[in-house]
Amino acid sequence: MAVPHQKHHLFFILLLLSLLLPTYARLSLDHSDLKAFANIQKDLGINGQRSSSSTPCNTPGVFCERRLSPNGTYVLKITRLVFKSQRLTGFLSPAIGRLSELKELSLTNNQLVDQFPAQIVNCKKLEILELGNNKFSGEVPSELSSIVSLRVLDLSSNLFSGNLSFLKHFPNLENLSLANNLFTGKVPKSIRSFRNLQSFDFSGNTFLEGPVPVIRKGESSRPQYPKRYILAENTSSTKSRNTSSGSKNYNLAPAPGPSAAASHKHKKGKRKLAGWLLGFLAGSVAGSLSGFVFSLLSKMVLAAVKGGRRDGGPAIFSPLIKRAEDLAFLEKDDGLANLEVIGKGGCGEVYKAELPGSNGKMIAIKKIIQPPKDAAELTEEDSKVLHKKMRQIQSEINTVGHIRHRNLLPLLAHVSRPDCHYLVYELMKNGSLQDALNHTSYRSKADGQWARGANAAGSEDCLLLHY
């Protein structure tokens, strides 16, 4: 059952190819590329027998791709020319510059001569330029660095001369070989800016001067590959034209072999793993510290908010009052309306009340009236004096609230209001000192106790009185 199903799919694939291939076959080579290739083929010395095909795109070593022309139709454009080891004896035609889509030009291991055509700089999409092991001569055009897409540049084993000023800006260059030529001068420092450069070889150029600029670790965007730096090797291995009794020898350390490269990559991997672990630990510690600091700040803010609220509420000085809400009735305007008045004075009245939630615990509430004064009538000096007095009252109340003495009735709490202050004490059944001195009804009820208290003043049996 599966075989017919597979045949069914194969039929549709073949049908699709039959529709596409004629379309590709009907495409013709761009007219400009056709004329340029005719000149290139002639100057390279490629005879007609090698290119007997009806279209250059079918010639061995010629690769074409479909491109959209300016008039909106599709045409074929030459993208690669690969003629390696073809025993070519001609030269590279200036027409090479008319192949606008050319990405690779490989002509290594031939007998090509003459100069480097400057028109090649018009091939802005060129990525691979391999002219090694030929007989090219003259200077390399300084404009070559305008081809920023170059990844591979091999001009080795030729007769190129002049300086290396063409090594200006190759941001994508990975492999550079200028070995065994007649270059002179110094290796430019600009190669330090070739961030993707993985290997370069200047060996066999006996007239080069000075050191090779050091490319430090981290200047390459792909440090996982080992670099191979070669300036000069044993001159006995170079061509005879480069041997000289006065030749200068700039020996660098030999390039790492495969085993060294593997070791280098292994070490890189270890360092990378260690970096990840270190980063993870550092991130964890930083996160923990950040969380701790955030929690601490949150608690401080909450404490400040609670403290602010506490400043506007009751100040509690005794554990007898367990919650601030137990004194919430004093915050109301009519909080004392239904309470019994047990004493009066020049500053206000004393009220008797039951402390909420205390199982019948009685308290005395002393009201200290603050004389009202219209804010509009206050001068700046009066306002300052008033604020000073209020601060003094608050300070004294806080001081009294923390005093504990056997002959002083402890202050349980203090509630501040805009027009008065409430002082909360534990209710003492024998009244106040004023009552005792003025012979009030409390005196008649506690004559015996008052007499004993007066006679034993200073003893441990002295009664505590409301002040």
TrEMBL record:
Residues 234-249 have a biased composition (Low complexity). The lineage of its organism: Eukaryota, Viridiplantae, Streptophyta, Embryophyta, Tracheophyta. PROSITE patterns: PROTEIN_KINASE_DOM. Its main location: membrane. Residues 336-467 form the Protein kinase domain. It comes from Populus alba (White poplar). Residues 226-266 are annotated as: Disordered. Residues 1-25 form the signal peptide. Keywords: Glycoprotein, Kinase, Leucine-rich repeat, Membrane, Receptor, Repeat, Signal, Transferase, Transmembrane, Transmembrane helix. The keyword Membrane applies. This is Leucine-rich repeat receptor-like serine/threonine/tyrosine-protein kinase SOBIR1. It is found in: Membrane. The chain crosses the membrane at residues 273-297. The keyword Signal applies. GO terms for cellular component: membrane. GO terms for molecular function: ATP binding; protein kinase activity.
